[in-house]
């Protein structure tokens, strides 16, 4: 049992760093991304003995993240209006590209399914067939969602609100 727990702890230490950015990009929010990743890692622990023998538990986790996010946005599909929006902490990473924040805001404007396709295709560099399997749709749907999302991103990044003042 201790070997199983030690291998799970080692997996989590690697997985947290490796998959946190994916979770944040999928959810559009750091806190929701951390929650999603943590929930998936807890569910993986429940199945760890079987998953530890699998070829790639990271691929399983990636699929869980994408499916978990799809389930989340299906549940939270309705917009909730509030009188005062919450304050959002800015991520101030020194080595970020100057346009990274602009791209992040443009990604957040995409529908969740298109955002998932773009993130899995261009950030995780997964093939279209694997993305289709993760999202439970056809390869053609992945291709069309990717094309629509990229067109929206290009258009959004040309809008005046996204232009830099410098």
Describe the model.
This protein has 166 residues and is mainly α. 69% of the residues lie in helices and 0% in strands. The chain is built from eight helices and no strands. The chain has helices at 2-27, 30-46, 48-51, 57-75, 100-108, 112-123, 128-135, 139-158. Helix 7 (128-135) crosses helix 8. The longest helix has 26 residues, at 2-27. The chain is globular and about 60 Å long. Mean pLDDT is 81; it is low at 89-95 and 162-166.
Structural class based on helices, strands and sheet pairing = mainly alpha
The main sheet comes to: none
Radius of gyration: 17 Å
Q: What is the H-and-E element order?
A: HHHHHHHH
Query: Which descriptor suits the 3D outline?
Result: globular
* Oligomer type: single chain
Name the beta content range: under 5%
- How many strand units? 0
Mean pLDDT: 81
List the helices and strands and how they pair.
Elements: H1 2-27, H2 30-46, H3 48-51, H4 57-75, H5 100-108, H6 112-123, H7 128-135, H8 139-158
List keywords for this structure.
166 residues; mainly alpha; 8 helices
Task: Briefly say what this structure is.
With 166 residues, the protein is an all-alpha fold. Helix content is 69%, strand content 0%.
